[in-house]
Amino acid sequence: MSTTRANYLYPSIGMGLILASIIFVVVLVPRMTFKPAKPKDLRDYTAQELRGRQIYKREGCWYCHSMVSRPQDWDHGPKSKSSDYFYDEFHLVGSERSGPDLANIGGKFPDQYHMLHHQNPRYVKPGSNMPRFDYLSNQELIDLTSFIQGMGPWGTRAQDPETGKLRYARLEKFTWTTGPLKGTEEVLAKWNLSPEEQEKLNVSRYEQHNEVPYKYKTEIEELLFGTSHEAQAARGTLLNIVDKNKIAGVDVTEESLEKKREEDSTFSAWTEKDFKEPAVEPADPLEVKVLMTKRRYANYGKGLFNNECSACHGLDADGHGQAAFTMTKRPANFWDDKFKNYNVDTWYWRISRGVPSTQMPRWEYTLTAEQRLTLAAFLKYVSQNKGLGKLKGMESDYGKLPSQAAPALPAPAPSVKPSPTLVK
Amino acid sequence: MDARLETTFDAADTAFESGWWDRFLAWMDVEHSASKRFMISGAIWALTGTLLGLLAATEYWAPDLVHGVAQLSFGRLRPTHINVVAFGFLSMSTVGAIFYVIPELCRTKLHSERVGNILMLAWNVVIVAGIFCLTNGITEGREYAELPWFLDIPMLAVLLVYCWLIWMTVLNRKEKQLYVTIWYVAGTTMWFPIVYFIGQKVFFSMPGIGDAIANWFYGHNILGLWFTTNGIGLTYYFLPKITKNPLYSHLLSIVGFSTIAMFYTPTGTHHLLQSPVPEWLKAVAVISSVMLLVPVMSVLVNFFLTMKGKWGMLGTNIPLRFFITAMWFYLLTCFTGPFQATRWINWYLHFTHWVVGHAHFALLGTFGFVAWGAIYYCVPRVSGRQWYSRRLANAHYWLSLVGTVIMIVALTVAGLIQASAWEEGTPVYRGVIMVSPFMLMRAFSGLLIVTGQLLFVYNVFKTLIFVEDPLEDPLEEAAPATVSMGATK
Fold this sequence. Notes:
The structure holds 2 protein chains of 2 kinds.
Chain A: H1 9-33, H2 47-58, H3 111-119, H4 138-150, H5 185-191, H6 195-207, H7 214-225, H8 229-243, H9 254-264, H10 266-272, H11 285-308, H12 310-313, H13 344-353, H14 369-385
Helix pairs in contact in A: 2-4, 3-4, 7-8, 7-13, 9-10, 11-14, 13-14
Chain B: H1 3-14, H2 20-29, H3 33-61, H4 74-106, H5 113-135, H6 149-171, H7 180-199, H8 210-243, H9 250-264, H10 279-291, H11 293-306, H12 318-340, H13 343-349, H14 353-383, H15 390-424, H16 428-434, H17 436-465
């Protein structure tokens, strides 16, 4: 079609009007009508947090860490509300998630964990591909950490709508203002304490926090015996792990397995009974099956442990991780006799809640209930067998240790060998 | 070389005897010089931008490679890469081509060569300053709008002057008819400053999460109402011109033009579908995103039917090959785009590498190829010189094509892996470790693309700056007289 005498004026005016009305609707109308209310449960940023936010923006953290918790994000805490952004001047919502969402990050990890993580993420997360921010000054690292710890319902900015006080106790009190943080002198000084002083430190650490983990006991029971959709789905995955266990040359019929399950419920087999390896390998196929199931299960937890925990607790779970001596309080050695008597509830609770006053994170926000349960199984296995036992060298279903292992720290090894100090 | 060009070169030569200011003015007054210099800048920024991208991609895979240097950390390289590629390479190359195409279509000269050259200088200054600011952490932290406010203002001024220049050229035209390319380009000059104005915090500010609405209104429309309309407008000129086929349908071209402005404008909020912004705004964004199929399909049907009987030219004509490749990428981009903007697919794919792949599909695969093709077509016409080497151009094409395809495949697969890992309950950072091999693949594809750009810039320099005679055949051969494939009439 070709018009020989076209009038361009009216179509142009018409298109201009359409465009103007669309812009009016999608930009100006939201600007006039969309005004989220001032949140009651969130306070404004402090000057330090604002400085931290500026660093967060400047270093481009938001390119990889989104700051909006969506309805489908099971592990990121509550869904973000529009009022959560009330105090934000420049939005940092982000468009990609190459790292975890940070809308609810506050309070999940201890401060010192963040400080280490910012300097070199591989110190605490082997395999992470986050850049090192070792060029930031101490003060900048502290500001950044204070901003990050403010985010979300467990963060320092969350306040009780009625009393105006913090809603959740913090894992660790934020005490550093300035000082030699990047160097390891201060940390090493703490490591060089006399054994008595170390023990005193540990006693206080365990005595302060002896709350009873009732909440988690019911959570585990729900997971193992509950009828909810989640519990059944979790059991389905557990069964998959069990059923993948093929034993060469051993004939286990489905009926006999089912019978065994009924009498001591495969799932409670490892919660109630111990994980100690027998002195001699059993000959009864059913016994073998149960044993292999336990090993397989603990081994799944080992894969998780390698990825999430080994940086601090060590690949052998003996507390000799590469990042261990950067910490003011030493990571636990799971070979310790003390841990032998921990039941599954206690393990589950420790893993979920973290250990206050140390750098142990709250894993309930990062790992699924089922994953934490396998981790508990692994820790039970390690503590009862004083080491990895038969799991050593066994490939885990969770995944191998990532290729980028934790880098060695530049500082010299501590003079006091971190041997377990027992606290009864 | 034709006589018209010779006289302008003589004018420049005689100016050498006068003072530096006169020489500068003469340097700015040479006909087609603005177009040429815009395209040279575009080529240099193509190399710089892809190099920055390659470095960022490598760091993503090997995070300990560079450390302790703030300017080279991933979080600063990424915005620098995006801004250099978007405002430097794509924008400057297309504007250079427009400065050649619009006067041709109007049968006149560019209204003011001098203003064009000043624009070129100002534009380059903004980008150099932008690289300095972004690598040194002076940023607004809003995607595609990272440039600080003191660069936003000159950028808007540059866009307004560009608008004035194009309109003066169009209004003083000798040709009465307005071909569809002029519609696209002249329309873009009008609406893009508005979009840019709304997108910059210094001009237009919304509180709280509303800032994200304004940001993504701009962030998506820099694609839809700047790169797309410019790139499609140019392709409307080049395809019939190269193939010597008439445009298949002028009606379809008008349908495509009028619907693109209507349906592209409200789509921005589809980047925020699971964020706490008004639901009605999301609905508008999703509907208009799906409706984008109308302009896209009308444009592509028009292009591919214009190619009727001339597909054989792809073997011999390198600029045409770039345009047609771009249009195939455009087809794939715009087929996935509307679907991934719908709520349930977005629910699954949002925040993954799929989206990054999609962005490269559109900007590198489609408009990058249009920009390269436009430079290959226009350079001999604005300089009167044939390309230095056909072989280098060919190598550039294949390296870019293979690199782009590998990159898109890697990012798309990585995105699907991430999405399914999250669904399964795997922690986010484990998902990142899972896709690490694909990130290596992406870095490798970046290496191919950067190599292509090196050859390209070398070719441009040999042709335009060191002025060496062509080694081989010209890039284009005349349209075959007989219809080679798929002939119906």
